Amino acid sequence: MRDAFHDDLDKVSDDLVEMTTMVGAAMRRATAALLETDLTTAESVIAADDDIDALRREVDDRAVDLLARQQPVATDLRMVVTAMHMASDIERMGDLARHVAKAARRRYPDCAVPQQLRETIREMAAVADELVTATGSAIANKDVHGAIEIESIDDRMDQLHRKVFGELLDQSWEHGTEAAVDTTLISRYYERFGDHAVAVADRIVYLVTGRYGTQDEGLQR
What is the pTM of this model? Predict the structure, then answer.
C-alpha cells in the first residue's frame, strides 16, 4: 500500500514537471508567433492549451484520490496539497502563453509589438524560458535553494517590464494608443508568467521545509 502511495506521489511530481515542459514550449512558440507574425503557430498554441488544462485536472484528480484513500500526514500531506496549488499556478502560466498567442493572432498580419521594443520582448521571453526550466528542475529535485534562486531570475523579468513602461511613457513614443495598449498587455503577460513561477518556488520551499522561503524565516538566498 505504501509503495503504491509513493508511486502515485512520484507520478504527481512527474506530471508537474511535464506541465512545466509544456508551458515552456507554449511560451516559446507564442513568442515566435508574436515576433514573426506567424498565425499558424499562434493558432496551435491556443489549441494546445487544452492539453495543459487536461493534465492539470489529472493532477487534481490524483491528489484528491490520494487524500481520500491514504489520508497522508506530514511531508506526504504537504506534497499532495501543494501539488494542487502548483498545478494551478503552472496552468496559469500556460494561459499567459495563450494570451501572447492571441495577441499575435489579433494583430495579424501586423506585429503587435513595435520594432523598438521587440528585442526587449525577446529578452523577456528568454527570461521566461529560464524561469520555467528552473521551476521544473526545482520540482523534480525538491531543491530548496534552486527554488529560492527563481525569485532572483524573476527580478530580471521585473526590470524588463519596467523598461517597457519607460519606453511607453517616453515623449518620443510615436506608435499610438493601440500599440501602447498591446505592448503593455504583452509585457504584463510575461511579467505574470514570472510571478507564477515564483509562487511555485515558494510552494517547493514549503513542501520541503514546512515554511515559506522568506529571508525573515532564515533561508539564505
Answer: 0.93
